[in-house]
Design brief:
With 99 residues, this protein is mostly helical. The chain has helices at 2-12, 30-43, 47-56, 66-76, and strands spanning 21-24, 88-91.
């Protein structure tokens, strides 16, 4: 997906179209709650313990909020980001250790 976005970014840039990827980390959603509950059942831990384990791996010390992704998407769609194209933007609180 990253390579495809880079190719599209190069092809569409002359038309003023930008192409970027958002890479979401653990984001507090109903789906993540469901995954935490299922994992808690399988490993015989509480949902709080599973969530705490996940959070302990995130340098920002918290789960993402849907608004974190929305803010990044809004910025990339704005005029202020018109010269940004062909990139991957981790929105993960520092979780990824590489680019």
């Amino acid at each position: 997906m990253g390579s495809w976005a880079k190719t599209l970014a190069r092809e569409l840039a002359p038309f003023g179209i930008t192409v970027n990827n958002l890479l979401p980390g653990h984001t507090k959603t109903a789906r993540l709650d469901e995954l935490i509950q299922n994992k808690a059942k399988h490993v015989n831990k509480t949902t709080e313990q599973i969530a705490d384990d996940m959070i302990s791996l995130i340098p920002a010390g918290r789960l993402g909020k849907p608004e974190d992704l929305a803010n990044a998407a809004g910025f990339l769609a704005s005029r202020e980001a018109s010269f940004i194209t062909g990139i991957n933007v981790p929105v993960d609180g520092g979780f990824l250790s590489c680019l």
